[in-house]
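Tokens for chain A. Residues wanted.
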């Protein structure tokens, strides 16, 4: 299946089978007639539906001209027959000849007539209508443009306003298909335009959010709008319950309150970056800078004097925004577009916007890790506790990915006297067992291919500021490997060459796995 799920397909089996079982219980028996598409007997309609399920059956029905006849019957169909006839249309529109025939027969107007027919429009009928549109739109640009012109924005807005998760999922498939390929970006701009398409997008997010209902097309649709294009700030703002922004939609906005819908959006975009990085040929600098601003604002809102009970999502929305922002920035910093060397690296925009200085400041403001704090002679009373468990790890993990393959970041850390600070993160923290791994990997990336940084670490070792309490407690000390000239940790009380506990040597990372004996 196409990653972006834009291919036309037969009717969803769950919807089809559940509904047809219900219909078959109501009526049975029957006989054939010369024009079966116009026959209002349920058994005849179900026979056509059965035939439309297979490729061979669809080809036979297409040759008999069944699709135009079915379309003509839609607006006058009794309530019992409307859904099965829509299902026939869904299945027939899987094939390109029928997709063309659908437009030629005025199928879009026929489908619109269903919404005006006076029947009670159930969620199942709306799903079938939307799947017809999705299948037709997948045929090409002319079909996408025709669907968009007929149903955007009024009908799509009415459908989204129903706030039904299953219906919104089907709507996402149509919108995602229409906003793809040639002409897709223009339609995406219309979808994100205030007063026109934006209410559709917001209704979808608000519908999916309470139950954290997420479908693949929702990821791709919001990924197009927020990650690849320029609409993240606008969408995020409009999900706020109050007007908390300055109205500029740029990266210089300010937030004081956050909503569950905003956290839902951030989680969704974060997962998109992790699960489908290969489909992202670009990450917009608008998105990167918008998330950076969120990080600043959430950090300023969080009460730094209290610590969350656990890592991850909490009841504190500002902490959740802070946590999600770190994860997104970490993945942005690790993103590479291998298809084009000319692609702009969003990390460059983050560096220019002061991400590095911000991360180093966060580390400097924090009280030391517990293993250091417990053995330090004194601790500054101005130090802050971590807003949540794992906060220090998240800061270091963003720094780690930011360092990887970026000499400018390596050099900036040295110039800002960040090397000693980063070395202090290579500890076993009882609040987060993965801190040491992220810290050690950060040191590897800091020194990799950078002689000046390697010499700086060697100089620090000679002056012995690197022998911090946490290193001493582990029974380790730092020395320079005579062959590789890289720093390594060795046991202070046992220096046999065959048993070093080193964290970086010969360009390879080895974690300290034993602290005793």
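Reply:
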């Amino acid at each position: 299946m196409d990653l972006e799920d834009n291919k036309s397909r037969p009717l969803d089996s769950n919807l089809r089978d559940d509904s047809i079982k219900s219909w078959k219980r109501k009526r049975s028996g029957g006989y054939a007639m010369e024009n079966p598409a116009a026959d209002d007997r349920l058994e005849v309609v179900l026979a056509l539906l059965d035939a439309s399920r297979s490729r061979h059956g669809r080809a036979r029905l297409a040759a008999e001209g069944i699709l135009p006849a079915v379309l003509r019957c839609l607006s006058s169909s009794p309530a019992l027959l409307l859904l099965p006839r829509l299902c026939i249309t869904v299945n027939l529109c899987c094939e390109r000849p029928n997709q063309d025939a659908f437009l030629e027969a005025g199928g879009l107007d026929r489908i619109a007539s269903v919404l005006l027919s006076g029947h009670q429009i159930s969620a199942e009928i709306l799903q079938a209508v939307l799947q017809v549109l999705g299948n037709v739109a997948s045929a090409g640009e002319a079909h996408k443009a025709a669907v968009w012109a007929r149903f955007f924005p009024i009908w799509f807005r009415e459908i989204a306003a129903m706030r039904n998760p299953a219906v919104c999922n089907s709507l996402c498939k149509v919108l995602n298909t229409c906003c793809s390929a040639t002409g897709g970006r223009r339609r995406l701009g219309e979808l994100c335009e205030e007063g026109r398409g934006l209410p559709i997008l917001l209704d979808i997010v608000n519908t999916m959010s309470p139950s954290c209902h997420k479908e693949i097309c929702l990821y791709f649709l919001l990924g197009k709008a927020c990650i690849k294009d320029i609409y993240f700030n606008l969408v995020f703002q409009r999900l706020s319950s109050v007007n908390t922004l300055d109205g500029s939609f740029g990266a210089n906005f300010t937030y004081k309150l956050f909503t569950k819908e905003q956290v839902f959006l951030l989680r969704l975009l974060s997962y998109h970056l992790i699960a489908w990085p290969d489909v992202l040929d670009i990450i917009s600098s608008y998105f990167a800078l918008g998330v950076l601003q969120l990080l600043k604002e959430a950090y300023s809102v969080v009460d730094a004097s209290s610590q969350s009970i656990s890592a991850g999502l909490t009841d504190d929305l500002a902490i959740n925004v802070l946590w999600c922002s770190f994860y997104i920035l970490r993945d942005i910093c690790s993103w590479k577009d291998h298809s084009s060397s000319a692609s702009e690296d969003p990390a460059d925009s983050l560096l220019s916007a002061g991400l590095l200085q911000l991360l180093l400041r966060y580390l400097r403001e924090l009280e030391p890790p517990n293993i250091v704090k417990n053995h330090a002679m004194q601790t500054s009373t101005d130090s802050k506790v971590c807003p949540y468990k794992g906060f220090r790890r998240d800061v270091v993990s963003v720094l780690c990915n930011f360092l990887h393959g970026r000499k400018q970041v390596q050099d900036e850390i040295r110039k800002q006297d960040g090397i000693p600070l980063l070395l202090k993160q290579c500890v076993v923290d009882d609040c987060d067992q993965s801190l040491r791994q992220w810290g050690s990997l950060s040191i590897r990336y800091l020194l990799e291919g950078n002689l000046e940084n390697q010499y700086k670490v060697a100089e620090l070792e000679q002056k012995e500021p690197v022998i911090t309490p946490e290193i001493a407690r582990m029974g380790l000390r730092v020395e320079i490997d005579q062959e590789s000239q890289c720093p390594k940790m060795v046991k202070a009380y046992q220096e046999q060459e065959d048993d070093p506990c080193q964290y970086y040597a010969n360009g390879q990372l080895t974690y300290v796995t034993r602290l005793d004996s």
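The first helix runs from residue 13 to 26. DSSP finds 27 helices and four strands in the chain.
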